[in-house]
Write a structure and sequence with these properties.
heterotrimer, A mainly alpha (315), B mainly alpha (265), C alpha/beta (236), B: 265 residues, mainly alpha, two-stranded antiparallel ribbon, 2 strands, 66% helix, C: 236 residues, alpha/beta, Rossmann fold, six-stranded mixed β-sheet, four-stranded antiparallel β-sheet, globular
């Protein structure tokens, strides 16, 4: 809806069905893992803390600042949630935010929700966590590590997520790889700066006001190795794959075809013969068109009938 | 200034409103899945699904213009599909400067994607505007979403409006002090980096207050005997007639997909 | 320019159709301190948000000094009217007190030296100069209120508009805030439920109920009319 921070929420209709389902499965597995981790870490505090912070991220996405002219910068919040609460809790919080945005506000599709969860709730925290921790270690717990780490973690979370979106669109045949990658990546390299600056501003305020919330110097939560490996792999894979794919779009299409993602087989032939009524509609299916229109009229007729009867009844 | 305008639910007494959410949510998802499975260029099926959708919209008593207006909000993303106009190989329709050509399969694919998006988003709007949030939660429970997640989402919804109000007040307070000097030689607004940093401060403020709020909520829950276990009343039963109608609709969706894939396969 | 704030037949409806203001009219002269009272939901906060254009004027007119409150003038108007919100946490969103008080001057594009002077001046007006480097979040409610007032004083406004300044304060903090309001020279409109403060500080009172101004006059006369006060839910 109006509060969407960036063109990151994929609507329904843009992704192929097998890809949507595959991403649903991956997201569900990661979310299930996170639920178990967070339950162990927070215990009975889990529900109030996660619920309120999910609401806070949702509301925080409304915050904006003018960049220039009519454009403005927004916050997505995956990195901020990761820095404050650790990767597993961030996965859970972003899941609730992205889920409610799809269910209630049509920000992103329902079938595409698996993909949107993957991009924002899985990639976001997984990628930002190793980066943030890395800088914290490099600086041996000094202030600059926290600040530089949060800026770069936030920027990377947006950039890598946008590459994931581009990859998904390309695999679905909705947007060609050699355009999707530079376009999505380019825009989000800029949007990521806004995300980075807002995250940095937020972290410096929290550093000044409630340093305890940043849990500096605390050991890593359980299961972090998985995040380190998973996040680093995801980031490298997407970062390496995208220039490859965009310089060689046919390659990706070939992969897609081999994997059965692109539904080439179900497409009509690509030639227009004069007696085609509309591109892609062969003659023998004229009957179907008529059947389709008849069925349509029937459905609408029945509906109008019921609506009319109901109006009579209530009047 | 209250953020209730966020809640998309529009109370009416239409049959769509009365349909149990435990059927409505899966039906909408099945409808969107059906739409997605129709092959590129399956025009009669798109028309038919649109008719089904319009019928449901009429029955919801909310008026078709309401749905069209809300659906327009999902349109910007269509830009992402625009390049397919030029990149599909096939019969050339229009030749543009810079060596760009619009091909027939490109147009076909683009229109199909846009139509699918437009149909699906309306189905989602129909669900959200005819189902109060607590019933959607009930449906999520019936769909076997883990109890913890359902509780978190429920609590999130409860405090969403409170925190959004807080955010709006904070933005008002910022706007109220965003003035111009009487001296016209001073350029107002500050630098972009400063503005971003201030916005970050607002986000940080929101977070600290939310974490402190969650502590208070937790204590209030404890004081009423909360022990971490989430208990619910049993779900009420679904009316028989609604079950049967839904079964028929599910089966017809399935048949439509089969028909579409056979005819266009 | 005899009026600081002038409101003419102002009406406002929220997007959900609820009409919050109906034909509200009043004006405040230079140096005047006026109380705005009325039950919850009377439209006080909605009115206040109109005074520097946070809510757009739908019907009627609002003038600040000579300037009509219209989109073109918002920048100027916002520098002229200092709006202090009820919850200071909504207004203090920077790491330090200095940053918060400096927000207005920096936004206006003042040179750094002048920003520092403005901040110092504003903090000394609320007697909190030594608080500049402190972290806003760690202050008490009473201290936050004073800082919130300083954040608008730093813009050199011609009028101050305060929403519930004494709400949530303990007696001592309330007392010191009242003394502060007494000392500030700006014209002032203060929305409040604190009738003892109104009696003490404001010679004139505007009463709102259900989006309308139901009385506007000398505080003493208004507040001694028990029947009137009960009718509008101001005493129980």
């Amino acid at each position: 809806m109006l509060y969407s921070p960036a063109p990151m929420h994929i609507p329904d209709g843009f992704l192929s069905v097998p890809l949507s389902i595959a991403l649903w499965i991956i997201s569900i597995v990661v979310i299930a893992l996170s639920t178990r981790r967070v339950s162990q870490d927070l215990g009975e505090r889990e529900v109030p803390v996660m619920g309120v912070l999910a609401a806070a991220i949702f509301a925080g996405q409304m915050l904006n600042f003018t960049v220039t002219g009519g454009t403005s910068g927004h916050l997505m919040g995956a990195a901020l949630a990761t820095i404050l609460l650790g990767p597993w809790a961030a996965v859970l919080i972003m899941t609730c935010v992205v889920g409610v945005q799809a269910l209630i506000f049509q920000d992103g599709g329902l079938l595409a929700l698996g993909a949107n969860l993957f991009n924002m709730a899985v990639v976001g925290p997984f990628v930002s966590y190793p980066i943030y921790r890395f800088f914290q270690r490099m600086s041996t717990g000094q202030k600059w590590g926290v600040f530089v780490g949060s800026f770069i973690a936030a920027w990377t979370s947006i950039f890598i997520a946008s590459l994931a979106v581009a990859l998904q669109l390309a695999l679905s045949g909705t947007s060609p790889a050699n355009i999707a990658f530079p376009a999505m990546g380019g825009i989000h390299a800029l949007i990521g700066i806004g995300e980075g600056l807002i995250t940095l501003g937020a972290v410096s305020l929290i550093y000044a006001s409630r340093r305890d919330l940043l849990k500096l110097g605390e050991p890593q939560p359980k299961g972090s190795t998985l995040i380190w490996i998973g996040g680093t792999l995801l980031a490298i894979l997407l970062a390496v794959l995208s220039p490859l794919a965009s310089s060689n779009p046919d390659g990706l299409e070939w992969v897609a075809e081999q994997a059965g993602f692109l539904e080439r087989a179900s497409e009509p032939s690509f030639t227009i013969i004069p007696d085609y009524i509309f591109p892609g509609i062969p003659n023998e299916t004229l009957a179907t068109i008529i059947a389709g229109i008849l069925g349509t009229l029937l459905v609408l007729g029945v509906t109008l009938g019921i609506a009319y009867l109901r109006r009579q009844k209530t009047a | 200034m209250h953020a209730h305008f966020l809640d998309p639910y529009k109370p009416r007494s239409s049959p769509i409103h009365q349909l149990d959410a435990r059927l409505k949510v899966p039906l909408v998802i099945a409808f969107i899945l059906t739409t997605s499975l129709i092959p590129i260029g399956g025009w009669p099926f798109y028309i038919f699904l649109t008719a089904v959708l319009l019928s449901a919209e009429i029955l919801s008593d909310l008026g078709i213009p309401f749905f069209f207006k809300r659906a327009a909000l999902a349109l910007p993303f269509v830009l992402a599909a625009l390049p397919v106009l030029f990149t599909q190989t096939g019969n050339v329709w229009v030749t543009l400067p810079f060596g760009l050509t619009i091909t027939a399969p490109g147009v076909e694919r683009f229109i199909s994607v846009a139509l699918k998006a437009w149909i699906s988003v309306q189905a989602a709007i129909l669900m959200a505007s005819t189902t109060p949030f607590p019933e959607i939660l009930l449906a999520l429970r019936a769909l076997r979403l883990p109890k913890v997640l359902v509780s978190i989402i429920g609590l999130m919804w409860r405090y969403l409006f409170v925190i959004v109000d807080e955010t709006i007040r904070m933005m008002n307070a910022r706007n109220a002090r965003s003035g111009e000097s009487p001296n016209p030689s001073y350029k107002h607004g500050g630098s972009v980096f400063w503005r971003a940093k201030v916005t970050g401060g607002m986000a940080g403020n929101l977070f600290i207050r939310s974490i402190e709020r969650s502590d208070r909520i937790y204590h209030a829950m404890l004081s009423r005997g909360y022990d971490g276990e989430i208990r619910h009343l049993p779900l009420p039963s679904i009316p028989e007639i609604q079950r049967w109608i839904s079964v028929v609709v599910f089966v017809s969706f399935f048949l439509i997909v089969v028909l579409a894939r056979v005819l266009w396969g | 320019m005899s009026c600081v704030i002038e409101v003419k037949r102002l009406s406002y409806s929220y997007p959900d159709g609820h009409q919050a203001l109906r034909e509200v009219s009043f004006h405040i002269s230079h140096g005047e301190k006026v109380a705005l009272i009325g039950p919850n939901g009377a439209g006080k906060s909605t009115l206040i948000l109109h005074l520097n254009g946070i809510l757009p004027v739908q019907q009627g007119e609002v003038f600040i000094g000579d300037l009509p409150v219209i989109p073109k003038n918002l920048g100027r108007v916002r520098a002229m009217v200092g709006l202090v919100f009820q919850t200071p946490d909504d207004q203090l969103f920077s790491p330090t007190v200095f940053d918060d008080v400096a927000f207005g001057p920096i936004y206006q594009g003042l040179p750094p030296q002048e920003v520092k002077e403005r901040v110092h001046e504003a903090l000394s007006m609320v007697q909190m100069t030594e608080y500049a480097p402190r972290v806003s979040h760690h202050l008490s409610v009473g201290e936050k209120k004073r800082i919130a007032i300083a954040t608008v004083l730093s813009m050199n406004p011609i009028a101050l508009v305060l929403d519930e300044p004494t709400a949530g304060l303990d007696p001592r903090a309330r007392r010191s805030l009242i003394e502060l309001l007494r000392q500030l020279p700006q014209s002032m409109l203060v929305a409040t439920h604190d009738l003892p403060m109104v009696r003490e500080l404001f010679p004139r009172t505007i009463v709102m109920d259900q989006g309308q101004v139901v009385a506007d006059g000398a505080t003493e006369a208004l507040l001694s009319d028990q029947k009137f006060l009960i009718e509008h839910g101001l005493v129980s």
